[in-house]
Design a protein that fits this description.
The chain is α/β, with parallel strands linked by helices. It contains 24 helices and 13 strands. The structure holds iron/sulfur cluster.
């Protein structure tokens, strides 16, 4: 499985916020995606958009509630079309299945189209350890493979890189001249990758959707690489999470409308590839063998959890990342695992363990923008709050989530807020104590505030007002004017 660095979230976010070029890239790309998304929705009308969202959500709920049935149907249809289906319990089993297919067929070179699940499994590393050269063929993925990095966004993996950085990378790794012409860089990548497509024995793809009734794997891309990976080599392996299954081709239609509009503001992506089994006798091209690897790797656990199951409805459009004020400041790498942003803050703790990723549910202002933009209306804030609740409630020895000091402070706060007399007395004492340190309505930063110093390090701490609301209320409403002063 991919290396888990979620424990470093706080320090990694701190470094990311100091990276000016990352902040610039995030502003430009995120803002562009958001505007394009809004235009694409307005074109079809908000009413229609809401109907589509409702339909997609209904389909996802139905598919996951009947997942056992649809997985079996998918298995039967893929097999009937001449393909092979493999179920992988975890990352290590999934990697072994792919490695064994490659070893037994003497595969030396593999081309890969974009797949977040393969990132989750660290499939490239596993194949390379088994003597297979693996080439990412999505342009963004190719860039980060050359750079030895991981994706920082669900749909734009190299979003954190500027064109100057990519040019420098191509210059160093491929020996081509420096350029600021993006099309020229794309031409270079195309030239290099074309050779790999022609020499690869194995093509690996992910899947955006799996259609149970026909046994079809659906990939939607903007580059032709997905289609080349699935048709040029003699073997095609599709590898994806088991939650991608939907019942029928008719159900697919609404997702084909929602996903590109939510991701990049496109009406439709440039390519929609639908793969059903290997090449048939009268087909002109296509692979001789087709394998579908369905990965669990913690998804059954998520499915069995009524409070978090909703996270499996995600179609990885990235809209919640583009709108998130936290992702917009720190980018994807700070989250420390494959899935970044608001949905990553739920999926990562669910798949790698809450103890390992205890900071992620707190990486949100709970503004609710992610839920607003989600094409499947996934209630991300509710699940984040739920995870915070679990962290606060879980026994210290199992989750090590909250310190004794934090728990005592929360208990004291809870007691104070539910005892009006004590609150009023505390406010009076606080006003007296703060007096020498208040200026312009704020407490001076010179005052040591051990419990809240991290918060006040970057923000002003407003002074306690001269009167509490209760005191003003008792005196009459005219005093409220003073509150505004
Ligand atoms: S949670 Fe919703 S908005 Fe975020 S990536 Fe998934 S489908 Fe898109």
């Amino acid at each position: 499985m991919a290396e888990v660095k979620t424990r470093e979230f706080v320090s990694a976010s701190d470094s990311a916020m100091k990276d000016a070029s990352l902040r610039r890239a995030l502003r430009q790309v995120g803002g562009g995606f958001n505007e394009a998304r809004l235009e694409a929705i307005e074109e079809v009308s908000w009413e229609t958009w809401e109907e589509w969202r409702e339909e997609a959500r209904r389909t996802k709920i139905h598919a996951l509630e009947n997942l056992d049935y649809y997985l079996e149907l998918l298995h039967d249809r893929v097999t009937a079309a001449g393909g092979h289906v493999h179920f992988a319990r975890d990352a290590s089993q999934a990697n072994s299945i792919v490695a064994e297919i490659a070893r037994s067929r003497n595969v030396k070179i593999a081309t890969k189209s974009k797949s977040m699940v393969s990132e989750e499994l660290d499939l490239n590393q596993s194949l390379e350890a088994n003597g297979v050269e693996v080439y990412e063929t999505d342009l963004g993925e190719y860039i980060i493979q050359l750079a030895g990095e991981t994706p920082s966004h669900l749909v734009a993996p190299a979003l954190h890189k500027t064109k100057e950085q990519v040019s420098e990378l191509f210059h160093q790794e491929l020996g081509v001249p420096l350029t600021d012409d993006i099309e020229e860089m794309a031409r270079v990548a195309r030239r290099v990758l074309r050779e790999k497509f022609l020499s690869a024995d194995l093509g690996i793809s992910g899947a955006n959707f799996l259609v149970a009734e026909t046994g079809t794997l659906v990939i939607i891309t903007n580059e032709g690489n997905g289609r080349l990976c699935t048709s040029a080599p003699r073997i095609h392996i599709g590898i994806t999470g088991m939650e991608k299954v939907i019942p029928s081709l008719q159900d697919l239609a609404v997702f084909l409308r929602l996903l590109p509009r939510s991701a990049t503001g496109q009406r439709l992506t440039s390519y929609v590839s639908m793969v059903t089994g290997p090449r048939r006798n009268d087909d002109e091209d296509g692979p001789e063998e087709f394998h579908l690897v369905l990965v669990d790797n913690g998804r059954s656990r998520l499915l069995a959890d009524p409070d978090l199951r909703e996270a499996l409805y995600c179609i990885r459009c990235g809209a919640c990342l583009n709108i998130c004020p936290v992702y917009g400041k720190i980018g994807g790498h700070a989250y420390g695992w494959v899935y970044p942003g608001p949905i990553g803050a739920i999926v990562s703790p669910a798949l790698v363990g809450l103890k390992e990723a205890k900071d992620l549910p707190h990486a949100s202002s709970l503004c609710g923008a992610c839920r607003e933009v989600c094409p499947i209306r996934i209630n991300i804030p509710r699940m984040l709050l739920h995870l915070r609740h679990r962290l606060a409630e879980s026994p210290l020895e199992t989750e090590n989530a909250t310190t004794t000091g934090e728990r005592q402070a929360a208990q004291a706060y809870s007691w104070l807020m539910s005892n009006p007399a004590a609150l009023s007395a505390a406010a009076k004492v606080g006003r007296l104590v703060q007096k020498p340190f208040v200026s312009g309505g704020k407490v001076s930063k010179r005052v040591p505030l051990p419990l809240v110093s991290k918060w006040t390090g970057g923000r002003d701490l407003p002074a306690l007002p001269r009167q509490t609301f209760r005191e003003m209320w008792a005196q009459g409403l005219e005093s409220v004017a003073e509150l505004r002063e």
